[in-house]
């Protein structure tokens, strides 16, 4: 995995394919490799160049244990795009990565050709604030939960009822979660301090890049109503909701997500079939 010195840190990235560039920004506590299971193959097959990276805080990118801000993540994303000579280009983000793309469209509008925001929000409500406090408290307690318990919790939080009720499928997911634990270092802890401040929905009325917001119908981490608020705030934004998937919708229903994504980009390719979960290997999950 190549790396570049961006904003004083060592940032690791992957650059795949040829054609018009798409930069994909991953969510909290996960590496950019998660995009390579489904989205990168679909983009490359459609003739795009896909760039993924590990956000600040997630090894092998520098962990920055003293802390950082969303503005730092925005600057890192912009810096990588400029380092590779890709701008203006398309940006795709999920969860925290979507928030980064939203803020990038405000801070550096000239860099963004199109923006795609999956599982996003423009405010912090009571339940999301409570969830973040709980995650911080658990980390700071030093308590190490058994791996099977963590896998079960991740399944409940991130997958749809349809997946949870499918015994063979959920068995694969549980084994995957046990095999691919989430990062637990100081950089992952620093990401827990990143929250959406008040007033961002109003700020997004100034975004002028073409934008697609994708909500995942069964998402309990960031419910689709929060993403729809972002779409309503951004002038001309398109909103699409994918049924039968939770917060990991880009992994649960990848064919549908990729179809919507590529149609927004202006393509209608014949997509390759989805890759099974066993192909994940060392991919981190967002």
Please give a structural write-up.
The chain is α/β, with parallel strands linked by helices and 286 residues long. The protein has twelve helices and eight strands. Strands 1-2-4-3-5-6-7-8 form an eight-stranded mixed sheet, sandwiched between helices. A hairpin with a 2-residue loop joins strand 1 (3-6) and strand 2 (9-16). Helix 2 packs across helix 3 (96-107) and helix 5 crosses helix 7 (167-179).
Secondary-structure content class: alpha/beta
Q: Treating each run of at least 4 consecutive H or I residues as one helix, how many helices? A: 12
Strand content range:
15-25%
Low-confidence stretches: 268-282
Query: What is the overall silhouette?
Result: globular
Helicity, as a percent range: 25-40%
DSSP, total strands: 8
The largest pleated sheet is described as: 8 strands, mixed
Tell me the distance between the termini: 19 Å
- Using only C-alpha atoms, the radius of gyration works out to 17 Å
**Secondary-structure element pattern, one letter each:** EEEHEHEHEHHHHHHEHEHH
| Strand line-up across the major sheet | 1-2-4-3-5-6-7-8
The averaged pLDDT comes out at 93
What order do the helices and strands come in, and which of them pair?
Layout: E1 3-6, E2 9-16, E3 20-25, H1 39-45, E4 48-53, H2 70-83, E5 89-94, H3 96-107, E6 112-118, H4 126-141, H5 147-158, H6 161-164, H7 167-179, H8 186-191, H9 200-203, E7 211-216, H10 224-233, E8 238-242, H11 249-252, H12 254-265
Parallel strand pairs: 3-4, 3-5, 5-6, 6-7, 7-8
Antiparallel strand pairs: 1-2, 2-4
Helix pairs in contact: 2-3, 5-7
């Amino acid at each position: 995995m190549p790396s570049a010195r961006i904003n004083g840190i060592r940032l690791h990235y992957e650059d795949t394919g040829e054609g018009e560039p798409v930069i994909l920004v991953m969510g909290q506590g996960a590496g950019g490799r998660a995009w390579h299971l489904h989205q990168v193959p679909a983009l490359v097959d459609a003739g795009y160049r896909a760039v993924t990276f590990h956000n600040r805080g997630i090894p092998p990118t520098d962990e920055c244990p003293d802390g950082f801000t969303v503005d730092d993540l925005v600057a890192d994303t912009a810096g990588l795009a400029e380092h590779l000579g890709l701008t203006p280009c398309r940006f795709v983000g999920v969860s925290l990565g979507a928030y980064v793309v939203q803020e990038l469209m405000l801070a550096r509008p000239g860099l963004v050709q199109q923006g795609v925001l999956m599982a996003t929000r423009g405010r912090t409500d009571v339940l999301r604030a409570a969830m973040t406090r709980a995650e911080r408290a658990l980390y700071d307690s030093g308590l190490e939960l058994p791996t099977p318990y963590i896998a079960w919790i991740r399944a409940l939080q991130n997958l749809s009822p349809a997946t949870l009720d499918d015994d063979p499928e959920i068995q694969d997911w549980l084994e995957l979660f046990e095999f691919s634990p989430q990062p637990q270092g100081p950089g992952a802890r620093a990401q827990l301090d990143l929250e959406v401040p008040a007033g961002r929905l109003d700020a997004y009325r100034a975004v002028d890049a073409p934008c697609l917001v994708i909500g995942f119908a069964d998402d309990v981490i960031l419910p689709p109503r929060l993403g729809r608020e972002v779409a309503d705030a951004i002038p001309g934004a398109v909103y699409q909701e994918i049924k039968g998937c939770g917060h990991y919708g880009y992994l649960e229903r990848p064919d549908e997500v990729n179809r919507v994504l590529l149609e927004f980009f202006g393509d209608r390719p014949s997509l390759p079939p989805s890759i099974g979960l066993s192909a994940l290997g060392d991919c981190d999950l967002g």
